[in-house]
Amino acid sequence: MSPLAFCARNGRWLLVAGLPVAIAIPPLAIAIRPLLPELVALMLFLAALRIGPRRAVGALHELRGTALLALCFQVAMPLTMLALFALAGVETHPAALALVLGWSASPIAGSPNLTLMVGGDPAPSLRLLIFGTAVLPLTVVPVFWGLPVLGSAEAVTASVLKLLATIGLAAGLAFALRTWPLRELTDKGRTRIDGLSAITMTVMVLGLMSEVGPALIHRPVELAGWMALALAANLGPQLTLAWLGRGKVAPATLPALAISAGNRNIALFLVALPPQVMDTLLLFIGCYQVPMYLTPLIMQRVYRQER
């Protein structure tokens, strides 16, 4: 078995193994941290390369119902939360910023893979991923405007344009490759891309958790608070969707919707928002990787009960 095939087959355990490594070796995590924007762009590229333009367009044709769901996830959820925080007068608190930004993000690129790992149908999560990522530069506008910590209107516009450029370049290059040199992906080609994705995500988690190791030693109470918030932000929507969808959504479809609701690509904002804003959220982003990468292990029993 080739190394990439091995990584593809054991991707779930590779991701899980990255969590303790990131915590145990802070210098490694800190060294990778400056590369996070490039790694995020690479993950977008690999996801688009795996999907291909024809499958993406095919999925978009089936997005009538999914579009409404994606807008609920990326607009209704964060704006509702932002309104509640504003009423409480805590909209500028880092925890409020973390939740609002996290829920305004599109699903992670690995959401279809996570859905497969729990035995669900990955097609709905693929549609949510494609549509959510495509419209993200538009859906974040009202959310960004409602966050005073992001600065002036010009700063918000610049962040949106930077996000749009990143998504457009990554997906455009991938789709261009799938149009000619990689028009038809073989099973071996898909496996290699899956292996590269697993490796990229594992390296990403090292950088994303650069704050967790030091916090475990010097700020354990603060770390516990951020970890609790990350667990609630990730597992809360999954459990809520699993409960609300019982008997109303096809059992094979429900895991895809719930996983997409809870696992959001907040790291994508690392390429768009000012570093001084994202630096305050790095500990939350690091903690958020724990329920994200443990979703197949933690939630498998819940989704099995729904089928």
Automatic annotation (TrEMBL):
InterPro entries: Na+/solute_symporter_sf. The chain crosses the membrane at residues 12-29, 65-89, 95-116, 128-147, 159-177, 198-217, 223-244. It comes from the Bacteria. This is Bile acid:Na+ symporter, BASS family. It comes from Salipiger pallidus. Keywords: Membrane, Transmembrane, Transmembrane helix.
